[in-house]
């Protein structure tokens, strides 16, 4: 694992644990208050709504870093071995450009959504969009790393008449 992947995975793990823990603690505390005293925290619904995108984006990036997303490998299996490496490099570069384009579009929207504030805590909407933008940047970095790995890994020819092994599911 290189430094970029290590940093992305580390940041996402911290965000995942913090957001999950804070959401859980707030929901439990609010439930206890509701049943024990008949009242609740005014802001208790707003904070989980603000943290949920951070939870989701960190999970998406972690899944991408661990290769746990659904893949369609039959297309790469159909490509002749001599072209497989170039197809892999090209497809990862296209993915990186698309994530970069989405991150740039999200960045341009930050000014627009910054004026939207949450009702109680007055947190700007740009915080959530910034989370999405950060996740897209990390996904672009991981795609560039995968393109680099495809470039740097020497091609190993497979013997004729061998079937490609189907990877096991990750559950």
Automatic annotation (TrEMBL):
It is a multi-pass membrane protein. Residues 23-152 form the Tripartite ATP-independent periplasmic transporters DctQ component domain. The complex comprises the extracytoplasmic solute receptor protein and the two transmembrane proteins. GO terms for molecular function: transmembrane transporter activity. It comes from Comamonas terrigena. This is TRAP transporter small permease protein. It comes from the Bacteria. Belongs to the TRAP transporter small permease family.
């Amino acid at each position: 694992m290189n430094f970029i992947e290590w940093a992305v995975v580390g940041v996402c793990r911290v965000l995942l644990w913090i957001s999950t823990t804070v959401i859980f603690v707030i929901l439990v505390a609010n439930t206890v208050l509701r049943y024990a005293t008949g009242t609740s925290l005014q802001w208790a619904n707003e904070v989980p709504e603000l943290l949920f995108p951070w939870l989701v984006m960190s999970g998406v990036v972690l899944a991408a870093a661990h290769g746990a997303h659904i893949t369609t490998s039959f297309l790469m299996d159909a490509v002749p071995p001599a072209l497989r490496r170039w197809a892999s490099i090209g497809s990862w570069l296209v993915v990186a450009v698309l994530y970069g384009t989405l991150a740039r579009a999200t960045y341009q929207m930050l000014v627009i959504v910054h004026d939207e504030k949450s009702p109680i805590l007055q947190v700007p909407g740009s915080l959530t969009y910034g989370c999405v933008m950060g996740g897209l940047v990390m996904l672009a970095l991981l795609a560039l790393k995968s393109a680099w790995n495809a470039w740097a890994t020497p091609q190993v020819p497979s013997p004729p008449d061998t079937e490609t092994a189907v990877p096991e599911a990750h559950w």
